[in-house]
Amino acid sequence: MQEFFHSVTLDRDKCQGCINCIKRCPTEAIRVRGKKAYIIAERCIDCGECIRVCPHHAKKAVTDSLDILKDYEYTIALPAPSFMAQFNNLEDVDIVLAALLDFGFDAVFEVAKAAEIVSAATRKLMQSGRLPRPVISSACPAVTRLIRVRFPGLIDQILPLNAPVEVAARMAKREAAAKTGLPPEKIGAIFITPCPAKVTAIKMPLGTGKSAVDGAVAVSDVYPRLLSCMKETAEEGALPALSQAGKIGISWGSSGGESAGLINDNYLAADGIENVIRVLEDLEDEKFQDVDFIELNACSGGCVGGVLNVENPYVARTKLYRLRKLMPVSLNHLEDQDDPDALRDTLRWDTELEFVPVLKLDDNMFAAMQKMEQVEQIVASLEGLDCGSCGAPTCRALAEDVVRGLASIDDCIFYYKRQHKKEKK
Amino acid sequence: MSALKWTYEVDGTDFTRAGEASSNVKKKLRALGVPSDVIRKVSIALYEGEINMVIHANGGVIDVEMSPDRIDMTLKDTGKGIPDIDKAMQAGYSTAADEVRSLGFGAGMGLPNMKKNTDEMRIESTVGVGTTVYMTVYI
Asked: If contacts are CB pairs under 8 Å, which of residues 390-419 in chain A contact chain B?
């Protein structure tokens, strides 16, 4: 099995060994062992729920430090659509873009611009009728990873296009290489990321062999210094016209935005990891009729809900709506792209997505059946409180760990107490 | 080794709970490493069956038996029974009440979908006594 990189990691010193994260994890990827949380790497989808819920701030997202700008001769900032929703009273995206140049980047390339191209390509691909319906969005990497470990039957329905940030990096680097004449390795495309899942998607991409994004810095790291740059930028007077994206692009920043860009009413957009799981379960049972497209975002509210953002997701969404009001619908079309072959390579997945059966009890089905029988027996002997005191999220999860040889049934304090009493008698 | 057996009670009064058995079975089959096309067929057939039991029969009991080469499902209710099984098997034929249809169910595709997603299906029904549906999917 391939090695795993995860943006979501544990600060052992801060971890108190409580059960908040294990109960919240949608793939049951966390256990508490020896009074410290432990993340099971092959199960983690980097959704960031544990970061959100940890009262001790022991869960964190590893992102690149701002020093990464020094590693390249020419750097390009890739701000996400949701990034524009982080500021008070912002009326013009150009202030943010110009301030990013003052911040130290040599160029900016809006992810919203690439998003408009992905929207156009999705419309075209859906019209071709080649994709099994309903098509599931591939934009949220936490959702794609969730499907890969938990919903193998739905893998074929995932839109085989790169996410806007990947498309943005490839387009921006091509532009920069043409403009500067620099070799690609001296050009750095740096994403300003709202979430850890995107960081993982860059370091360990799905759907493509290697990501063109060279680094990811957290919105929360960029924000404070950028604010002062923005103040200076605003005082300088006339702004350069930098923005190259419209309503469709910026709308990707909140739930429902990607779907709206398809200009087709037969869509469904769900956000928040628990709602996403419910939709995927129903989708597996073929409960939806007449739905062409399904947009799923692991964070509540969509990317504005990303755990590395600074603004409250609902306030951010309102700001996004206000900001886009005066924008043109879309500034980017497939027809304008001068090199259709390069565009296809930029957009299409080049690596097939494969099922990773991490929840399987055993590779051999006979053995798995035997193990399941043991699991049922152990579950029957437990209290069924799902209290988490053993370090596993549910009694069933403990039973599975016992059968896998990863835990002891004595880890259950109720079971242990009962045995102890019996021995006394 | 013997087969694994799971039993589920289907509550006939609560629409929103229909699907619990199917999603529980799905989880188990996934943990067992059953191929995903088999899981898909089983869960679709079971879900349709659960809905039928809620709409037409006020609930019932589902037994699932998993062997290494096959999955057998028995859906038993004590509802009003099916007078004409051939007719009930026709796509689009429905006796569901209007209120059920207004919820988006009762399109007359339940039994045909169950048939389509299983390798074997047999219905035993007596009017006034109840219905039992036997379904098998081979692994």
From this structure: 400
